Amino acid sequence: MLRISLLRVSLPCSSSPVFSLSQSHLHSKLRPQAMAYTTSSHNNNNNNNKLLFRQLFEKESSTYTYLLADVSHPDKPALLIDPVDKTVERDLTLVKELGLKLIYAMNTHVHADHVTGTGLIKTKVPGVKSVISKASNSKADVLIEADDKIRFGDLFLEVRPTPGHTLGCITYVTGDGPDQPQPRMAFTGDALLIRGCGRTDFQGGSSLQLYKSVHSQIFTLPKDTLIYPAHDYKGFTVSTVGEEMLYNPRLTKDEEGFKNIMENLNLSYPKMIDIAVPANMVCGLQDLTTMPVEATSN
Prior knowledge:
There is one protein chain. With 298 residues, the chain is an alpha/beta fold. The protein contains six helices and 14 strands. A hairpin with a 6-residue loop joins strand 3 and strand 4. The radius of gyration is 18 Å and the shape is globular.
């Protein structure tokens, strides 16, 4: 099921950013109709830099997949964040329809509730590189670390380590600069959810580590930074740093209060974990003969 809504963000030629919403979409319920996200940015010299953005949904695991592309670049390079194996055909059809060139298939962490689509994508689209954090100890073509940049055309994502849900969790944040989209966007995986966060009782999780990760790596971003998580179970699609700092019922507590909440969730054992984690440690269908390479820090 594809569930998307409409957002336009622009940075005019003045030094002050302007943020406008064509629909009041923050915390709007998911709707059956398909609508498109488009984020655009303009600098003082060129108003053609544009980020195409789509938020896609996989209903069985309530997973969001994100498609980003620089449509002002001649090649229209694109990337997918947290693709799911069951919706790879949908994602690749959209990439083709939009005339994009997919160059990266990326994960925010080793998922326990679904099998990643990155390996399957690699078998269908020659030249695509899989991406995951080095700290995850899993296999991919590109292993990333803190402060690395993932470049696609003239746009880029910053890599911020946010362990705690798992050892290898990372958050991807759109770049900061006059030629980058504003407000910024943070793809937080399971570290920060809308009015919640990922569990911390398996895969090397730590409630105190997660608390510190979110407060030091995400809550230090501008308050209008848009939060796009890997999952949502209540029908929300997007939040902001400022909203979560005020209203997140877990992460507004102090460290001890947060630890107490996380230790008493009494969650059931993830039904897909024994299948998903081993598969995702090798990118779903990652070619084991391919040696991974490390990203270049910038």
